[in-house]
Amino acid sequence: MSKATSIRLSDDLREKIDIYAKNEHRSISSEIEELIRIGFAAKENPDLPLEFINDLLQAKTEKESDLAKPFKI
């Protein structure tokens, strides 16, 4: 279960997050969670390009949602 946490954000950062959230059809909270997930993954894997990390996280989400399909060669 999620726990509510209050954080302070600069107006500029809040506006950027709001734009990203609208583009991705997410709530601000969901967008902040996504950005934190990406940030943690990038920090833990500094040798990987950001786009590769995004693709990995998207694939993981698809698999967890049973949307992934087996790859056939």
Automatic annotation (TrEMBL):
One of its GO terms (biological process) is regulation of DNA-templated transcription. InterPro entries: Arc_rbn_hlx_hlx, ParD-like, Ribbon_hlx_hlx. Gene3D superfamilies: Met repressor-like. This is Uncharacterized protein. It comes from marine sediment metagenome.
